[in-house]
Amino acid sequence: MSAASAKARRLVHRLTACRRTLATAESCTGGLIAKLITDIPGSSAVFPGGCVTYTNPVKEDLLGVEPDVIARDTEVSAACAESMARGVRMRLHSDIGVATTGFAGPGGGTERDPVGTVYIGISTSVRTSCERFCAPAGSTRAQVRTAAADRAIELALELLSEETE
């Protein structure tokens, strides 16, 4: 079992124990977080669903990301990731929303946000936040996506631990 799979198993068990649900909105990870979660038996009790929102119009139409957010901050930004996480949480009636948007490569990226940069948003009814994640330099597209999905699951686990302390 991979480290990411083991973390997903812990996440599903933790969500079950806390009677909480989690939904995902994924751009650059393309559904990988949802796959890791749904690989776990019993995940349907805590995972109502996920959205792969790869284009800006879909982020806007499906998740409610304001066009002004994308125009001002771009689709690869903390503001967009937070809006995606909030939107999927609300639209899928979930306790927690997790979102990813970034540059998996090999193309794309900017001076400020090179390839390997992924913004991971996480939202609850109490707060919404974002982490700027950077995969190790030279990571392949698959490595960026896997590392970002793994980190998103870690963030959800950390959130659940903070809330139950």
Structure description:
This protein is α/β, with parallel strands linked by helices. It has a single domain (3-164), classed as Alpha-Beta Complex (Maf protein), CATH 3.90.950.20. 46% of the residues lie in helices and 18% in strands. The chain contains 6 helices and 5 strands. The protein has a 5-stranded mixed beta sheet. Helix 1 packs parallel to helix 6. The longest helix has 24 residues, at 141-164. The radius of gyration is 15 Å and the shape is globular. 46% of the residues are buried. The model has no long low-confidence stretch (mean pLDDT 96).
Please state the CA-atom Rg, rounded to the nearest Å. Answer: 15 Å
**SSE arrangement, N to C:** HEHEHHHEEEH
Number of helices: 6
Question: What is the topology, as strand order, of the major beta sheet?
Answer: 2-1-3-4-5
CATH topology: Maf protein
- The CATH architecture assignment turns out to be Alpha-Beta Complex
The major β-sheet equals:
5 strands, mixed
- Could you say which structural class the secondary elements and strand pairing correspond to? alpha/beta
Quaternary arrangement of the chains shown? single chain
Coarse shape? globular
Give the CA-CA distance, first to last residue. 28 Å
Identify low-pLDDT runs. Answer: none
Kindly state the mean pLDDT as a whole number? 96
CATH superfamily: CinA-like
Question: Helix share of residues?
Answer: 40-55%
CATH class bucket: Alpha Beta
The number of distinct β-strands equals: 5
Beta-strand portion reads: 15-25%
Overall number of structural domains = 1
